[in-house]
Amino acid sequence: MTFRSEVHSAPSRQDASTLRSSRALESDGRDKQDVLQGTALWHDLNSMPKHYNKPGQGLPVENLGYQAYTTYFGIGTSPPQLMRAFIDLAWSDLVIPAVNCTHCAGKLKYDRTKSPSFESGNGSKITVRQDRYVWGRGEVSSDSVTLGEGVEVQHHPFVEAEQSSSGPWAPESVESVLGLSMKRPVVDTGMTKHFLPGILETMAEEKTLDRDVFSLLLPRGDGDRGDLVFGDYDKALFKGELSTHPLYPENTTDWAVEATSASVMYANGTEAGYQSLAGYTALISTTYPGLILPRHIVRSLINATGADCSDSCTGCEVPCDQAAGLPKLTLNLGGYNFSIGAEEYVVKTRVNWPFCRNREYCAVLVGSDKLLEEPKKIVLGSRFLTSVYSVFDFGNRTVGFAKAKHRFES
C-alpha cells in the first residue's frame, strides 16, 4: 500500500513524536526493562493456556502506544535469540541487527556464532528500506526462525544488518519487522524496496504448518494482550462464527477483500450517510492506525460526530466525554456487515509536537481515500483489527473475521 505525500487530519502530524514519547518507549532503562519482559514472555510460552491447537501456542501481541503492535520471535537455535518486531501484513523482508551492528545501541542483537543452524550467504550486501519502521544494510544470511512453541521455520533468508536505524514511527526498543505478506510485495519506491521472500513463503515451501494459516487478535485496552497463532486459530478469542472472505481481486498478493458498501448511522437509527462500494477493495493493515474511506463517507461521519477540525496540530477531534454516544460506521464486506463504533475510530492521544500546545485529546482516526494512490480502495487499519478476530489463510487465499473476545471481556 502506498500513500500520497499529503497529510490528512488523521493521523495528525505529531504521530511520530507521540509514538516516540509514549511511556512505553521513553528511556534506555525502559528499553532494558522491555528486553527483560520480552525474555520472560518468551520463556512463558510453555505456560500459556493449553487451548491452542496443534502445532503451537500463540505469541503475545502488545500495543506500544498509538497503535504500534509488536510481538516476539526467535532467530537461530540452541537456543533461539529473542527479537522484538512490529507486525506488518504488507511486508516481506526480515532485517535482524547483527552483534556488530552500528546505531543499534540498547537493542537486542543476533550473534551468528551462537547459532549452529546459521548459514552464510554469498557475501553480497543489500539495503532494505521500510518507510515506516526500519532501515538496514547487511549481508543476506539464513537461519531458523521460531514463532512460538513448535513452529520453527528453517533456512529463512534475512538481512544480517551491520547498519540499522529506526524509521520515524519506530521506538528504539524494537529490533525488526515481522512481515506477514503472502508474497513479496510488488513495491519499489525510493523508500520501500523488497528483496527477500517473506516468512509465509518459506513456511509454505517447507510445509512448516499442517494448515497454511495464521490468526491475529490485536489488544484493545490498557493491560490487554493480543495473540498471533501460526497454523490454527483460537476459538476462545472470538464470538459467533467466522465469516470467510476470498481475497479480492482474485490475483491480488495483498491481504485484501471485497467491500460492498459503507454507511453512517446515528444512535437513533437515522442514516447520516451511505455509499455503494461496488468494485472497491478493502485492504487490511496493521500499520495504519485508523480507517481510510471514500470522501463522502468521511464527510458524513465528521459532520455526524460534530468533530472540530480547526486545529492543524490535532486534526479532527471530539470531546472525550462524548465519544460513547457517537454514530456508528457500518461496512459491508462481501455481504457481511461489520459495525464500527467510536471505540474503533476514536483514540485518546496527546499533542507532542513543536509549536503545538501539549494537551490530551480524542482524535477521529478516519482519513479520506485521497491519501491513496490506487482508486477504489479503502483501508481497514489496526483499530478495526482490535474489534475482530482475523484468520489469514494463505493456502486457500481467504480471510476470516469474527467478533473479537478480549481477555478483559466476559
UniProtKB/TrEMBL annotation:
Gene3D superfamilies tied to this protein: Acid Proteases
GO annotation, cellular component aspect: fungal-type vacuole
PANTHER family: BETA-SITE APP-CLEAVING ENZYME, ISOFORM A-RELATED
Region spans: Disordered: 1-32
Protein name, UniProt field: Vacuolar protease A
Upper classification of the organism: Eukaryota, Fungi, Dikarya, Ascomycota, Pezizomycotina
InterPro entries: Aspartic_peptidase_A1 (IPR001461), Pepsin-like_dom (IPR034164), PEPTIDASE_A1 (IPR033121), Peptidase_aspartic_dom_sf (IPR021109)
One Gene Ontology molecular-function label: aspartic-type endopeptidase activity
Domain of life (superkingdom): Eukaryota
